[in-house]
Amino acid sequence: MLHRADSYAQVVSAFQWQVPAAYNIGVDVCDKWADGSGRLALIYEKSDGAQTRYTFDQIKAQSNQFANSLARYGIRRGDRIAIYLPQAPETAIAHVAAYKMGAVAVPLFTLFGVDAIQFRLANSGASALVTDAEGCRKLLEIRDSLPDLKVIYCIDGDAGAAGGTVGALPFHQSLALESDAFDPVATAADDPAVIIYTSGTTGKPKGALHAHRVLLGHLPGVEMSHEFFPENAVLMWTPADWAWIGGLLDVLLPSWHHGVPVLARRFEKFDGASALELMARHGVTHTFLPPTALKMMRGCDWPDHAGPRALRSVASGGESLGAELIDWGRRVLGVTINEFYGQTECNMIVSSCSSLFDPCIGAIGRAAPGHRVAIVDDRGAEVADGQEGNIGVLRPDPVMFLGYWKNPEATAEKFAGDYLLTGDIGVRDPEGFIRFVGRNDDVITSAGYRIGPGPIEDCLIGHPAVRMAAVVGMPDAERTEIVVAFVVLNEGVVGDEALVKALQAHVRTRLAAHEYPRAIRFVTSLPTTATGKIIRRELRAGYPA
Questions:
Q1: Which of 78, 400, 404, 426 has its CA 20 to 30 A from that of 510?
Q2: Which ranges carry the AMP-binding enzyme C-terminal domain (predicted)?
Q3: Dihedral angle at the C-alpha atoms of 533, 536, 541, 545, nearest 10 degrees?
Q4: How far is CA 326 from the centre of its chain?
Q5: Would 108 be classed as within a structural domain?
């Protein structure tokens, strides 16, 4: 746990890892708080506004029951348990049960289609699956191709024909048959706990296998990005799905490690005004908002009827924020949004913290305490400050993955010497701030210049006509590549040649002459991964089709 100090240097100097040899996520985030006191763990709000509250005592009892049910069907230590659910109590219960069994949780995003689900279930060799009625319907087409899958649970009482056809057991009725006593398996901190599949930004998804220690490895970055969390923490929320590392290990599990309740609310379609209303209504004190969510909220104001804001911190990561969003956060949310950086394989390694230093616009922050983050060349040798290179993380590190599931070749390729290569290009300044330039394949080479898309996108969304923007390089015979911008306009704005010239001038005068987009294409939406990251390869391939 971080201890508040007067400077970043003091916080880093005072920090020491405390990773016990024996450690289990499920016991840590649930059982240690289930002392019979009725301590609040979860507020679950459905789309109709109905709310249910769960205590740690209830989560412990129901996760024990689920572990016993899984054991009844032959699920053992090391088996993979797929969790194909949205933010919901059953999702959290399944995770805690899997960890306490010594099994490996495999969270899956509910918007995945049949092919995506089939690949992940088959690749992981999942023995058990817990899902809902919609998930059962998707399984109809692929059930026969999953011979490793022993048992399926459906959380919906009205699973209907689909649930019966795939042989799904009713989740809640199955739990009711079991004892609420269960002895957690004694796991080591380095034992496997969870497989999280990469979002596929750069190719076929790979399963990043993490150990139980991954939660402890996240804590410095979470605590830093949330202003020394859990100080003043009452309630945490994120719109990010718990199937992704951002929702699961930036929010749900770290909050429960500290005994802080979490709000669960799934939006069928994210809406900025509704998100602000939700936070105001529940008195959310801490939130992780992906950049895409923030950009969609940027045109909204805090609800007039809500009274004083309870927010104490807002963290964001995944895409660069820029000055416009930082300014909006201060005006509307009443806080300085702290940007952080990481990836599925090695998350929460760099962060900002307004309590320690002012944000450096264009930088993603400094290395979180306990993590050695450097800019290195392709051989893993550190480069000088001010020089571009790979953003690398020195091993060993508690937050670092064990490797890609059943893919030792890709695991080996991820490292250069003792540095994990993130695949992102960055620059570090003498004060330790790291500037994200772009992914290796996102950096634009134009007339001898290397241009990152982030600053141009930030500049474009600062124009009053623009809601969202994405920038890529397109082949050009003279310049190698030219900067091309795909722009989503605000409602009512007409995308004509006059606006093209205005946007080009806007970038040219605020950034640099070599960075302005030589072509601008107006689109109604941008292609993104399920985690909200822009899929630039689709833009380069001729989006929209």
A1: 426
A2: 456-533
A3: 40
A4: 20
A5: yes
Q: Give the per-residue pLDDT at 428.
A: 97
Domain closes at, from 413, 428, 443? 428
Burial 331-363 (b: 16+ CB within 10 A, else e): ebbebbbbbbbbbbbbbbbbbbbbbbeebbbbb
The pTM score is 0.86
Strand partners, 489: 466
SS3 107: strand
Could you give the 3-state DSSP secondary structure of residue 481? Answer: strand
What's the CA dihedral at 353, 356, 360, 365 to 10 degrees? -50
User: With 60 as the cut, is the pLDDT of residue 490 above it?
Assistant: yes
Asked whether residue 69 is domain-assigned, the answer is yes
> Range of 193's domain?
8-12+22-428
The model's pLDDT over 51-66, given as tens digits with 9 standing for 90+, comes to 999 999 999 999 999 9
Nearest to 463 by CA among 321, 324, 291: 324
Give the dihedral sign, CA 446/449/451/455.
negative
For the chain, the maximum distance between any two Cα atoms, rounded to a whole number of angstroms, is 72
Domain count within the chain = 2
SS (H, E, C) 169-216: EEHHHHHHCCCCCCCCCCCECCCEEEEEECCCCCCCCCEEEEECCHHH
415 and 477 together in one domain: no
299 DSSP assignment:
T
- How far the first Cα of the chain sits from its last, in Å, is 49
* Residue located via tokens 């400094």: 366
Domain of 462, CATH number, reads: 3.30.300.30
Structural domain includes residue 78: yes
Which pLDDT belongs to residue 116? Answer: 84
Per-residue pLDDT tens digits for 402-426: 999 999 999 999 999 999 999 989 9
Predicted confidence (pLDDT) per residue in 66-93, tens digit: 999 999 999 999 999 999 999 999 999 9
Asked if 361 and 329 touch (Cβ cutoff 8 Å), the reply is no
Is residue 185 included in any domain, yes or no?
A: yes
Pure H helices in 232-290: 245-247, 253-257, 272-282
Q: In this structure, are 494 and 394 located in the same domain?
A: no
Residues 65 and 210 in one domain: yes
Strand order in the sheet with 466-476: 466-476, 480-489, 519-522
CATH code, domain carrying 82: 3.40.50.12780
